[in-house]
Amino acid sequence: MADIFDVVADATRRDILGTLLAHHTEGSTRPSEISVSAIVAELGLSQPTVSKHLKVLREAGLVGVREEGQHRYYHLVYAPLEEIEDWLIPFLSVDFEAAVAEEAAIAEGLKEEQKAFAAAIGKAVADASHQVSSAVKDVRPKSWRK
């Protein structure tokens, strides 16, 4: 069986899971199901592509399927998602607002440092340009001295 993180790493599979979640009926004792053709229509993908990804999701235990004749109806299976949740919880306890503010402060400090560096380089180039211009003027013969 594939690692659950590898399975959900694919954007198409995440889209399919999101579609299944969007069709989940709150308070229902039985899982909400959606047909493959409805997933195809909602995501705008080809039927073979959706079927291929549903197979991977099914093998990972993330979705269940009910067969009715030639039709397949899929629903979410939440238990495997707990593994992802357990892994994520420590990260969610981090104060992200403080971390983002700290990163912004560091970036702003770098911007100011970069501006000061650019200004120093600009001044040095301007001084060098002025010195070269002055030296060229001094070396150039004066046309009025013929």
Explain what this protein looks like in three dimensions:
The chain has 146 residues and is mainly alpha-helical. The chain is elongated. The protein has 2 domains: 4-87, Arc Repressor Mutant, subunit A (Orthogonal Bundle); 94-145. It has helices at residues 4-9, 11-22, 36-43, 47-59, 81-92, 96-139, and strands at residues 34-35, 63-68, 71-76. The model has no long low-confidence stretch (mean pLDDT 81). Strand 2 and strand 3 (71-76) form a beta hairpin. It holds the Pfam family HTH_20.
Q: How much is the average pLDDT?
A: 81
By DSSP, the count of extended strands is 3
Q: Output the strand order for the largest sheet.
A: 1-3-2
> Uncertain segments of ≥5 residues (pLDDT<50)?
none
Indicate the CATH architecture of the largest domain. Orthogonal Bundle
Straight-line distance between termini: 94 Å
- Which CATH class of the largest domain applies here? Mainly Alpha
Q: What is the global morphology?
A: elongated
Residues in helices, as a percent range: 55-70%
| Strand coverage percent | 5-15%
CATH homologous superfamily annotation of the largest domain: Winged helix-like DNA-binding domain superfamily/Winged helix DNA-binding domain
What Rg is obtained from the alpha carbons, in whole angstroms? 32 Å
Which structural class fits the helix and strand makeup? Answer: mainly alpha
CATH-defined topology of the largest domain: Arc Repressor Mutant, subunit A
Tally of individual domains: 2
Pattern of helices and strands: HHEHHEEHH
Biggest β-sheet: count, sense, barrel? 3 strands, antiparallel
How many distinct helices?
6
Keywords: DNA-binding, Transcription, Transcription regulation
Organism: Orlajensenia leifsoniae
Pfam families: HTH_20
Protein name: ArsR family transcriptional regulator
